[in-house]
Amino acid sequence: xxxxxxxxxxxxxxxxxxxxxxxxxxxxxxxxxxxxxxxxxxxxxxxxxxxxxxxxxxxxxxxxxxxxxxxxxxxxxxxxxxxxxxxxxxxxxxxxxxxxxxxxxxxxxxxxxxxxxxxxxxxxxxxxxxxxxxxxxxxxxxxxxxxxxxxxxxxxxxxxxxxxxxxxxxxxxxxxxxxxxxxxxxxxxxxxxxxxxxxxxxxxxxxxxx
Length: 210
What we know:
15% of the residues lie in helices and 30% in strands. It is of the alpha+beta class. It has a single domain, classed as Jelly Rolls, CATH 2.60.120.10. It is globular and about 45 Å long.
């Protein structure tokens, strides 16, 4: 476990949910703004995209999540990273996005060769603590400054459909530069009162999963 992420190996999203990967819900895309601030990432314009899952899929996911977790699920997204590419550094926290973390699942990709990174942008960081949420108030990293982010932590996805808790309040990005397969995460957002520390505590005490 770390302040950035931890896996929940006994919990996997049902494999049959992967049939929804390529079914979008474009009429609801504006809702993404409440989770990502003023920036919407579009797969047609970038190597990285965040898409609100199909509304029928969200219903199924919520039913499954409500039967699985002892905390509520707010919404469901697909986070895509193109083959042989990395995502952009960004963050979503309580100020702009009403959350501090998410439960993520690799539903498409190359296990062992794809993952995530967390970092700091020195010009923004008031501390080097992974719990520092100050980066969010600056917005998003400009393209020309992406290379200046310093990597502080990394996670490799070794198992398909496995749940891993994900700190979204600090800068993070997907890593898929060494894979020829598109990376797709199912990302379940939870209310901002649930921090990584609290969710870790619930998990350690056996109170996270029903």
